[in-house]
Write a structure and sequence with these properties.
alpha/beta, Rossmann fold, 3-stranded parallel beta sheet, 11 strands, globular
Length: 293
């Protein structure tokens, strides 16, 4: 019987929260309550679920969080005004603008309007630049969460071939940088594949670790991986079925197939998802700590 290890994001995120307790206590003693402002434009169901989960976690930990809601037809100027106000509010240490934004709003302009020292998502060009030279201020939450899971489960990247599927600025691009940095826990040989890559299978078949962030349900099948590969599934997709809810959640990895062949795999849900929220909390705590210095 082939044994495939399930890499639980829930277990690792619980470990992260326990480790944050003392740091948060120290901030409380200095009359600092880490605060996150979330900005939500419109009624995107996935965004609303994410913000609800985040709010619950912040409240459970005694941290401050507030959601600023704008209508789907608000102007770019209105959104920037809201962000400017939060930039100047010292009770908020972090700002999260929930993406995707409506088409009439230029996401880059919005990200650029966030103060880099409050950009706990790590998307501001200044923070992306710091990451690319190996001196990060804030690491984007999902890639940071993936690295933390690999560390927790003692997956060594040095000398290994890592294949990242997807090149978004939110996951794929920073993931390719993090895995290949000359730092402890990284130092992998990383290949970045995307929609312009021909014969992606050629790369995934020789990969020791595959990190999939495409948003395509069940994309990665067992025929595309080598035996004992480690698979990190960042995708979360709704697929219609006959259940009571009318849909089920699945990742970009064809779970039922790969568990017969892979050495370890993250589940969906319960894998990378909880880690994204844990890293958002950690980045917000880090932002609050920087005001102590």
């Amino acid at each position: 019987m082939h044994n495939c290890t399930i890499l639980s994001g829930k277990e690792v995120s619980d470990h992260v929260y326990r480790n944050l307790q003392d740091r948060v206590e120290l901030l409380f003693e200095n009359n600092i309550r880490p605060g996150l402002a979330a900005v939500l434009v419109g009624e995107n169901p996935a965004s609303k679920i994410y913000i609800k989960m985040k709010t619950k976690k912040f409240h459970n930990l005694g941290l401050k969080t507030e959601t600023f809601k704008l209508s789907v037809d608000c102007s770019q100027e209105e959104l920037i005004q809201v962000i400017e106000k939060i930039n100047n509010d010292s009770s908020f240490h972090g700002i999260l603008v929930q993406l995707p934004l409506p088409n009439h709003i230029d996401s880059n302009s919005i990200i650029n309007s966030i103060h880099p020292e409050k950009d706990v998502d790590g998307f501001h060009p200044e923070n992306a630049g710091l990451l690319s030279i190996g001196a990060p201020r804030f690491i984007p939450c999902t890639p940071k969460g993936v690295m933390r899971m690999l560390e927790y489960y003692r997956v060594k990247l040095s000398g290994k071939h890592v294949v990242v599927l997807g090149r978004s600025n939110i996951v794929g691009r920073p993931m390719s940088i993090l895995t290949s940095l000359k730092t402890k826990g990284a130092n992998g040989t990383t290949t970045l594949c995307h929609s312009g890559s021909s014969d992606i299978e050629k790369f995934t078949k020789i990969a020791d670790i595959v990190i999939v962030a495409l948003g395509v349900p069940n994309y990665l099948t067992k025929d595309m991986i080598k035996k004992d590969a480690i698979l990190i599934d960042v995708g979360i997709n709704r697929v219609n079925d006959n259940s009571e809810k009318g849909y089920k959640l699945c990742g970009d990895v064809f779970w039922e197939e790969v568990i017969e062949k892979a050495k370890a795999v993250t589940p969906v849900p319960g894998g990378v998802g909880p880690m994204t929220i844990a890293m958002l909390v950690e980045n917000t705590v880090e932002a609050a700590e920087s005001t102590l210095k």
